[in-house]
Amino acid sequence: MLSISTLQQRTGGLADGRTAKAGLVACVFLSALPTVRLSAQGEVDRLALRFASMTAVTGLEQPMVDSLRALFPGSTRDQAGNVTLTLGQGSPKRLFTCPLDEVGYVVGNILPDGFLLLRRVGGGGGGRGGRTASPLFDQQLEGHRVTVFGARSAVPGVVAVKSTHLTRGRVATEASAPDPVFTVDNAYVDVGASSVAEVQGLGIAVLAPVSLAKRPQLYGERLLAAPAVGRRAACAALAVAVQAKPKVKGTVVVAFTVQSLYASNAGLASVKALLGPFDDIKTAALPARYADTAVETVALADADRLVREIVQWMEGR
Predict the structure, then answer these.
(1) Are 81 and 65 contacting, i.e. CB atoms less than 8 angstroms apart?
(2) Which of 27, 55, 181, 236 could disulfide-pair with 47, CB 3.0 to 4.6 Å?
(3) Together in a domain, 58 and 108
(4) Are residues 109 and 205 in the same domain?
(5) pTM for the full model?
(6) pLDDT tens figures, 100-118
(7) Any alpha helices (H) in 117-191, and if so which ranges?
(8) What is the distance of C-alpha 178 from the center of its chain?
């Protein structure tokens, strides 16, 4: 603890008695604050931004899985691709999980002129999706930047739009018929290639993952906007809770799961089969505004609260 004389020395002797006492009170107050809480808030912000910048199209989550394994030494990747970490020992045996995957796209075809066609993954269709995307979900692609994850590196691209010059004044089949709604079938992705060979030279093949370009934005009072940011910030909160090294009651298995958007929730089912049975299961989740849009938004203050709730649950409080 700083004395008044020490404080005066550190301020070059400029502090009078009242200023020095005020500074001393501030020092005492700050030293009494829980340092874990202060550092955890900064870590939540950092990891939420980092996770929100990543892409994990459902069924194609392994690059993000690899990043998480590097973040948690001692973690393992099971046969399904989940990242798991076991804390504590004994009974009860509980599971805290967070799904990593997101609705996204894959390259469906490569045209002779170098354009890419897309297919949506994880948002319904064919009865396989665990969650149905909004009918307007694909409209977010029109005219926007995307990232194609090739075998060599991430390749920037853009989704083409109709020419306003060539389509102006055209006659509709019905006088009152509006323009049709943009769908994924209308998405032509330009990656700067003019042939199939040039596309392949970029390391892009059919089934390569594609997502909107991730540019997370912090605004207002610690609000974070990005595609799928609700899931990302919830996983960041779980990661921060683990890094806080709670005094776990019994055994807690932490699992960052894949393929949650399939009807079978294959990732979670794999964890249960390999490491269960569990006495209790919790899933990290946060409320989000504008869900399933490019500007999905979470309040990082909610993530702070989630960190505290997870730690308390792990400690059996």
Answers:
(1) yes
(2) 236
(3) no
(4) yes
(5) 0.81
(6) 999 999 999 999 999 999 9
(7) 164-167
(8) 36
